[in-house]
Amino acid sequence: MLVKLLKIIMLLGFSIFLFGHYLWLFANLPEKMGVTGIIIVAACCALGLALSLPTKIYLTMLLMQWEENAKQKLPEK
Question: Measured in whole angstroms, how far is the alpha carbon of residue 9 from the centre of its chain?
């Protein structure tokens, strides 16, 4: 259940990051709103990265633990 929740948070973070990128490139928000637009785009990108990075690290640690358990179960030659 925890891994599923972390995956959802990671996807939400990636989506927010992509939304900030869309605002920057296609909606031209910084050109239309000036400094406020730049702050909005930067906040979207920063929040998206903040949400996605810790969950990726946690999932990587789970993968490393799974690999270690798989190595221990293999018979030695």
Answer: 8
At residue 21's C-alpha, the angle toward residues 18 and 26, to 5°, is 120
With b for 16 or more beta-carbon neighbours within 10 A and e for fewer, the 18-45 pattern comes to ebbeebbeeeebbeeeeeebeebbeebb
pLDDT of residue 5: 84
As to burial, measured by CB atoms within 10 angstroms (0-12 exposed, 13-18 middle, 19+ buried), residue 70 is exposed
Residue for token pair 């637009």: 37
Counting other chains too, the contacts that 57-61 makes at CB distance below 8 Å and 24 or more residues apart are 58/6, 59/3, 59/6, 59/7, 59/10
pTM value > 0.90:
no
Q: Where are the alpha helices (DSSP H) in the chain?
A: 2-25, 29-33, 35-73
